Each structure stands twice: as structure tokens, then as C-alpha cells.
Amino acid sequence: MLQNKNVLLIFRLIVGGVFIWAGVSKIADPLSFAQDVRNYQLVGPALSFLTAIFLPWVELIAGLWLIVGIYPKSSALLISSLLLFFIVLVLITMARGLDVDCGCFGTFSRQADWRLIAEDSLWLALSLALLFSPANDFCLLRKKSSKA
Predict the structure, then answer these.
(1) 99-120 confidence digits (pLDDT tens)
(2) Which of 5, 74, 103, 105 is the most buried (most CB within 10 A)?
(3) How many domains does the chain contain in total?
């Protein structure tokens, strides 16, 4: 477990920043992101559109909360879960032989491939370090410890 509070703060800023950037870039062009979701060929048009409306806001809020320190463990858990889902989604897409843009960063998206899996795995490692580390300094809100 990582216990250096400054390193953990840097991890929060990096991972939170990535998720803020991802969320904002998708919010800026929801129809394009809906098409990116549709290109994975796992859901229909209606669910693609709902995902394009809902998911970017989840990413944005989770990233903001992680940086600001509002329930940092919960934010890290949500981000870790999203990253694990994204990694599995890309693996399934690659196994099916589909050549799609990831849709990760709006117009800055790139191909869903092994490099994307490696990058998402790095973000996952950082978010898991945040989730399982005891240090929670520099936070506005966090779960109170039951120790007296």
C-alpha cells in the first residue's frame, strides 16, 4: 500500500484530470460520442444515446470529486470500475475483430487497441492505489473513521 500523501495527491490530480478531460470532451459532442458507443456493436441506438448523455457526466463528476477530495475512496472505486469496464470492452472489441475509435476523448480519440489497454491499465493501477491506500489528506469530504 502506498502511504506517501504527496504521491497520492499527484495520483488524484492525474486520474481526476484524465476523467475530467474525457467527460468534458464527450459532453461537448454527445452525438459523436453516441456514434462511438454504437460502433462497438454491443447496444442499440437508444442505449447508445443514453450512454452518451449519462456516462460523460459520471466521468466528469467522478474526476472532479477525486481531485477535490469529495468521498475520494468512493470516487476511486467508481473510476476503477469504469476503467475495468473500458479495458474489458476493448478486449472484447479486439477479439471480435472490430476496428473502432475508442471514443475516450471526443475528437482526440484513437483506435481501441493494445496501447489503449496499456494506458487504461496504468490509470487503473493509479486509481486502485488511491482506493486501497489509507492516506486521505487534502480532502473536503471523506468517510469518517469509526476509530475513537
Answers:
(1) 998 888 766 777 888 999 999 9
(2) 103
(3) 1
